[in-house]
Amino acid sequence: MAKKILVTGGTGYIGSHTVVVLQEAGYEVLIVDNLSNSNIDVIDGITRITHIRPVFEKLDCTDREGMRSFFEKYPGIDGIIHFAASKAVGESVQKPLLYYRNNIVSLLNLLELMPEFNVKGLVFSSSCTVYGEPDKNPIDENAPIKPATSPYGNTKQINEEIIRDYIHSGAPIKSIILRYFNPIGAHPSAEIGELPLGEPQNLVPYITQTAIGIRPYLKVFGNDYNTPDGSCIRDFIDVMDLSRAHLVAMDRILEDKSDEKMEIFNLGTGRGVSVLELIRVFEKVSGKPLNYKIVGRREGDIEQIWANPEKANKVLGWKAETPLEDTLASAWKWQLKLREKGIM
Ligand code: NAD
Ligand code: WQD
Known about the structure:
- The chain is an alpha/beta fold.
- The chain contains eleven helices and 13 strands.
- The strands form four sheets. A seven-stranded parallel sheet has the order 3-2-1-4-5-6-11, with helices on both faces. A two-stranded parallel ribbon has the order 7-10.
- Helix 1 (13-24) packs across helix 8 (239-254) and helix 3 (64-73) runs parallel beside helix 5.
- The relative contact order is 0.14.
- The model has no long low-confidence stretch (mean pLDDT 98).
- Bound molecules: nicotinamide-adenine-dinucleotide (NAD) and UDP-4-deoxy-4-formamido-beta-L-arabinopyranose.
């Protein structure tokens, strides 16, 4: 019988791509999402790709009794991939309690309910933000965690610690924590992708919206950093590659491939790409010159960070494979699709 996976935040950006990967691998997928940052039409997009409609319940993970009823209604869930969270760094500075409540209470509820319903595995979405400004690059999982610079980042650190302490206490669960670098791109079919509400905060949606004429120009935040071209450097990882890592992580837990009850992996390409380099690659694959202006630095930005993904490569047998050109082409195809559908 197919194993059952609950994907919280499964109509969101990374969640929806992961649902596709899980379904294609034969898992039965159930989605819980409160639609605070996503749209129900994503379920149709997923179904058009896989021809399997996932179970969907509009539910808030902070609602413990609602979540308990969910587990009662759908018995036999083997694992949870927990994407559901609020993720806007700037907003978290304005509304810290909202972020602490949403991101931390959601996790607490799941952890409390897992043993009660015999759910064995938890894959948790963490972030390279826990490393702050690295002392050296590429950065591996043993690098020190730096004091968080935003409530959002702090929720990731706290949640990692909550999982660690709970497992340390002898809880009957296993967990894999995945620290994502910068996820970008869309499913190659353009049936699903990233759908930022309002003005995008992240670079690639801002680029594609500028190229299609929604935004007049991209502001490049600083060209006076201590990097070869002066712009910041990131590790941009294709969302499909990232999603596949969740499948491998869940398999690893459910098939008891490791004696460790908790493991942490960086998910990145291992290659640092500057903001200006990324713009050049986008212009090449889209065939469109991008209107951009260099402006001042954005407060709180890290100068440069990229992953050492060797642990994930060796232990999980997972590697980011998609060339940056293909990833940016998928992001552009998705933007064109949104225009075609009259969404943006
Ligand atoms: P997203 O906002 O597209 O997806 C999150 C989904 O969770 C949304 O559909 C939202 O409606 C839902 N949600 C939020 N709070 C909820 C709640 N209380 N109950 C139920 N559903 C809720 O974000 P994403 O980019 O897909 O990110 C997924 C996860 O990965 C998040 O935990 C995020 O912090 C983490 N992450 C994202 C990035 C990134 O750059 N996108 C990087 C590192 C880590
Ligand atoms: C990338 C680079 C900007 C927009 C954020 C979170 C982090 C993680 C990923 C969740 C930076 C530059 C951007 C623009 C620009 N999320 N930029 N003009 O800052 O690496 O990380 O998302 O965990 O926690 O902080 O991603 O896409 O915002 O920026 O010049 O309009 O692009 O300065 O150098 P970032 P980003």
